[in-house]
Amino acid sequence: MTQAGKLRLGVNIDHVATIRNARGGAHPDPVRAARAAAAAGADGITAHLREDRRHIGDEDITRLTREIDLPLNLEMAATEEMLEIALRHRPHASCLVPEKREERTTEGGLDVAAEHRQLRPYISELKKAGIRVSLFIDPDPVQIAVAKALGAPVIELHTGAYCEAWNAGEKERAKAELARIAAAAEEGARQGLEVHAGHGLAFDTVGPVAALPQVMELNIGHFLIGEAIFSGLDSAIKRMRALMDEARAGAAGARIA
């Protein structure tokens, strides 16, 4: 995939499972959501198997690897339990993320600079198994340099601070956070890393990130699942795909004014 190529969309289906688990039972089925995402134009499926299993469960991962043709990106903490699960299922990719039991969602990126000794063996084992490893990090040059040194071929830049600033109406802070993402994407590509991005992206925030030529993939979930309540998953994904493509082509209005 070259920088001029199509920007990939990975659809995170975690929160279909969140709704299912609120009541128990089998509905709504996240695997059905993955099939719908594929039909709507997703390029991959992302699922985060958390230690506390608050949304995606082990059987979901088993079914996704068995029943879905799209590449599966397994988000996981760097623990022995999760490593064993990844090595058993052999997803296309594993994205190592920070995880705190008390958090509502992933808060910030991995501090790979501080945790490099802990992360190194997990990255090594996943790579030996033929699993593409990505590290979910804040858009920071130190984190990028350490990710490179650890041998991870992919970084995923945390876009949450940018999205939060935009949603709060703080345009100057949003501009500053977007500039950090842009600089990090450029640095990651310069280091020979494949650059992905995600967290908090919505219809009104995706354009400026999608317009960055170094970014090869966006992973978006919570917003799409929420929007699906009102417009349907197919419609939400197709609109997101169109906005990404428009921004990538340099259409007017894709950047923050």
Automatic annotation (TrEMBL):
Query: What residues does 1-deoxy-D-xylulose 5-phosphate bind to?
Result: 14-15, 50, 55, 105
Q: Where is this site: Transition state stabilizer?
A: 156
One Gene Ontology CC term in the entry: cytosol
Q: In which pathway does it act?
A: Cofactor biosynthesis; pyridoxine 5'-phosphate biosynthesis; pyridoxine 5'-phosphate from D-erythrose 4-phosphate: step 5/5
- Where does this protein hold 3-amino-2-oxopropyl phosphate? 12, 23, 200, 221-222
Stored InterPro entries: Aldolase_TIM (IPR013785), PyrdxlP_synth_PdxJ (IPR004569), Pyridoxine-5'_phos_synth (IPR036130)
Q: Which UniProt keywords apply?
A: Cytoplasm, Pyridoxine biosynthesis, Transferase
- The EC number(s) given in the record are 2.6.99.2
GO-annotated biological processes: pyridoxine biosynthetic process
**Catalytic site positions:** 48 (proton acceptor), 75 (proton acceptor), 199 (proton donor)
Please list the reactions this protein catalyses: 3-amino-2-oxopropyl phosphate + 1-deoxy-D-xylulose 5-phosphate = pyridoxine 5'-phosphate + phosphate + 2 H2O + H(+)
The listed locations are: Cytoplasm
Give a short account of what the protein does.
Answer: Catalyzes the complicated ring closure reaction between the two acyclic compounds 1-deoxy-D-xylulose-5-phosphate (DXP) and 3-amino-2-oxopropyl phosphate (1-amino-acetone-3-phosphate or AAP) to form pyridoxine 5'-phosphate (PNP) and inorganic phosphate.
- Annotated family: Belongs to the PNP synthase family.
Assembly and interaction partners: Homooctamer; tetramer of dimers.
Q: What is this protein called?
A: Pyridoxine 5'-phosphate synthase
